[in-house]
Specification:
By secondary structure, this protein is mostly helical. Among the domains are: 266-379, no CATH class; 530-597, Tetratricopeptide repeat domain (Serine Threonine Protein Phosphatase 5, Tetratricopeptide repeat); 598-708, Tetratricopeptide repeat domain (Serine Threonine Protein Phosphatase 5, Tetratricopeptide repeat, Alpha Horseshoe). Helices cover 70% and strands 0% of the residues. The chain has helices at 5-26, 39-44, 52-55, 69-82, 86-116, 127-130, 134-150, 155-159, 164-186, 192-207, 216-229, 232-265, 275-294, 311-334, 336-354, 372-382, 387-410, 415-425, 430-443, 446-459, 464-476, 480-493, 498-511, 514-527, 532-544, 548-561, 566-578, 582-595, 600-612, 616-629, 634-646, 650-663, 668-683. Helix 1 (5-26) packs parallel to helix 7 and helix 21 packs parallel to helix 23 (498-511). It is elongated. The two termini are 45 Å apart.
């Protein structure tokens, strides 16, 4: 197709606009998708994203941000702009995905131009590409990028917020290659150095985002050999300095990997996962991913930790992989472009296929950038079709994939919907049932949570965190004997695991069995000496036993182990409040809220302390915040009613007393205070009588049976 020169210059702009609009349409329903699985420890419970000064030091706890400072910094940017408002995180995720799509479009378009003029010295261009004009090349590039952006296999990397790790890394990977190509095109001109510097910067950023970036310098060299220089030797001779610079980014990656100690034991060769079994699983997984490229159903959010060892599943997959590897080797000399596509595919999957990831043996997000290879090959194959036929096929495929992506995003609307979908597709996955139970627990549907936890234990009775979660349900339902019994069973099955010891100690503490609770906390600390949560728990039980000095020492030890542990600051504040050291208590509560602004207990306790020192307006603000986060306790409404009456807000005081009685019928103090405030209002005195109301003294909340109950375990992926 022939266009006027000025029209040709606008084609990339129009193509980019089509790409962005199509992506926005496909992901229009994703902006209200909930935080799920690893989003919570990496975002909601991650204190390092609260301030930019700590954002480049993500916690070393095996979560998705561990060892990935630039990923953590991007989450800190979202937090600074909107706190934990999920919409902003999804908007940035989609923005990164669309920018990656634009980078892919630019890379494919310029690569086709290189092929059309001869992909390398002495190599004749394929006839089909030699005949193509700029418009046709732009349309083929748009087709490849559009299918990649809209493919539903990408939803896990875009809609699952914390898997921004994959899309950010993908963007930097593509920019590394695109900027290198622009620098090479500029040759020795004034712009080449700037483009090569940008390529190095993108590569460095990718290394700080996710470890899969490791192959980028090698892929750049292979790209140079395939499309620019004709051989590895010629590429190295022409641009040795560029490759040395790109290779230097491995230093940053190596330091980050070494600093995480195998991502806190979740990845590497010391995870407890058999390397042979893991490789067998990948022999099944990679062909499975390729099948999803052709027919993206069923898509599964979490494949769990199961390994595939059956020969009937492993052998066919291994034969497919050997066939693909052989075809790549053959194409490397005869059809270099196809050989490069094969190398791209294997290079991007190699890190997660060769290095065991204990928390997920399979994951669809690993195909994020690898997916570009088969789609680019398919787009290139369609270049042989007449222009109108090619546009029709691209259009039909784009609409079909976009609709499938839009529908897939509906599954992310809530954790319960996501895990229900996961369980329906993988009914034998115990972790899926555990996480569905957790989502029911958070909704207050305790019966459904119990049923899912029991099913998880039926499928795998050796998962200690399921026992802990089931115990949390019983505790929340007030059935402490049942909670203690299930926690004891967990200890019997995993006596060497500090987590179950600490969970049993929490239940015993709630039940008032202080001596045994102390013993279990101490045993947890023997098994894991740096266990800040157990130190804090031991502090709370010592405080209940009247041993305040010892309690403070243990809570302060917990804070020394983890300075970002908001719960320990809250506990220490409670100890200071009990000793009538209210300024110090207020400082502790404020520190806890700086780490976790949505910490309901700390708002409540800060309100208590402010009330005691006469800061009534601040006390009301803190009670309002606590009730907004967790409205159930009747005592809080009763106390807030008193504060409102003290400040002359009689109508609001009456409403709070009524709410307390709705939550707890027969609440004597609330009934008496409601009668008194109504009497004041009926006299229309216009002033309050500070001594007229009877306060029900609130005990400080410590996280061990006060305002909230223990959180259930995520059983999360901490995905690689």
């Amino acid at each position: 197709m022939t266009l006027a020169p000025h029209a040709i210059r606008r084609v990339p702009l129009w193509a980019g606009l089509v790409l962005v609009l199509a992506g926005l349409a496909a992901y229009a329903g994703s902006f209200r998708a909930a935080f799920v699985l690893d989003d919570k420890p990496a975002i909601v419970d991650n204190p390092t994203i609260r301030h930019f000064v700590t954002a480049l030091r993500p916690p070393h706890d095996g979560t998705t941000v561990d060892g990935r400072p630039l990923l953590n910094l991007s989450l800190a940017l979202n937090y600074a702009l909107g706190g934990t408002n999920v919409g902003g995180y999804h908007a940035l995720n989609l923005g990164l995905h669309l920018m990656a799509g634009l980078a892919l479009f630019g890379l494919v378009r310029r690569t086709l131009a290189r092929i059309a003029t001869g992909p390398a010295p002495g190599v004749a261009p394929p006839a089909v590409f030699a005949r193509m004009g700029d418009f046709d090349r732009s349309m083929v590039a748009l087709g490849a990028a559009l299918l990649w952006v809209l493919h539903p296999l990408q939803t896990e990397s875009v809609t699952y917020v914390v898997q921004r790790a994959e899309s950010m890394m993908g963007l930097f990977y593509l920019l590394t290659l695109y900027c290198f190509l622009r620098g090479a095109e500029a040759a020795s001109g004034p712009g080449s150095g700037r483009w090569f510097a940008l390529s190095w910067g993108a590569c460095l950023c990718g290394m700080a985002t996710k470890e899969v970036m490791v192959s980028a310098p090698v892929i750049v060299l292979l790209y140079d050999r395939t499309f620019l220089s004709g051989s590895i030797r010629a590429a190295w001779a022409r641009r040795k300095g560029v490759y040395l610079a790109l290779g230097s980014t491995w230093i940053l990656l190596a330091s980050l990997v070494a600093g995480t100690a195998g991502r806190s034991g979740t990845a590497g060769f010391q995870t407890g996962v058999s390397w042979v079994d893991y490789l067998r699983t990948q022999a099944f997984a990679v062909p499975h991913y390729l099948r999803l490229v052709l027919w993206p159903r069923p898509l599964v959010f979490d494949y769990g930790t199961a390994v595939v060892t059956a020969a009937s599943a492993v052998v066919p997959g291994a034969l497919v992989l050997l066939g693909l590897a052989g075809a790549t080797a053959l194409a490397w000399r005869r059809w270099p472009g196809l050989g490069f596509a094969g190398a791209w595919f294997f290079a991007l999957l190699a890190p997660t296929c060769l290095v065991p990831v204990a928390t997920q043996t399979m994951a669809e997000h690993r195909m994020y950038l690898a997916l570009a290879a088969p789609l680019a090959v398919a787009a290139g194959a369609m270049a042989r079709l007449p222009g109108p036929a090619r546009l029709v096929i691209f259009g039909v495929l784009a609409v079909g994939l976009g609709v499938a992506t839009f529908r897939r995003n509906r599954v992310y609307r809530s954790e319960a919907a996501l895990w229900a979908d996961n369980v329906a597709k993988r009914p034998d996955d115990a972790r899926g049932h555990n996480n569905l139970g957790k989502s029911y627990f958070e909704q207050g549907n305790f019966a459904a949570a119990v049923a899912e936890y029991r099913e998880a234990l039926r499928l795998d009775p050796n998962l200690p965190y399921v026992y802990i979660n089931l115990g949390s349900v019983w505790e929340r339902m007030g059935q402490l004997p049942a909670a203690i019994a299930i926690e004891r069973e967990a200890v019997q099955r995993r006596p060497d695991w500090a987590g179950v010891r600490k969970s049993l100690a929490d239940a015993l503490n709630h039940a008032g069995n202080l001596p045994e609770a102390m013993a279990q906390y101490r045993e947890a600390l023997r098994l894991k000496p740096d266990y800040a949560q157990a130190e804090n728990g031991l502090g709370t039980v010592l405080a209940r036993a009247g041993r305040t000095a010892e309690a403070m020492a243990h809570v302060q030890a917990a804070l020394a182990m983890d300075p970002n542990y908001a719960e320990a600051d809250n506990t220490l504040g409670t100890l200071f409040a009990g000793a009538n050291r209210l300024p110090e208590a207020i400082a502790c509560y404020e520190r806890a809220l700086a780490l976790n602004p949505d910490y309901a207990e700390a708002h409540l306790n800060l309100g208590n302390a402010c009330f005691e020192v006469g800061r009534l307006s601040r006390a009301i603000q803190e009670y309002d915040r606590a009730i907004g986060l967790q409205p159930e306790p009747a005592e809080v409404h009763e106390h807030l009613g008193i504060l409102c009456a003290e400040t002359g807000q009689f109508a609001r005081a009456e409403a709070q007393f009524e709410e307390a009685l709705r939550l707890q019928p027969g609440y004597r103090e609330a009934e008496e205070n409601l009668r008194r405030v109504r009497a004041v209002r009926s006299r229309d005195s216009g002033r309050s009588d500070p001594g007229a109301l009877r306060p029900a003294r609130l005990r400080p909340a410590t996280g061990t049976g006060g305002f909230t109950s223990a959180d259930p375990w995520f059983g999360g992926a901490f995905a690689g």
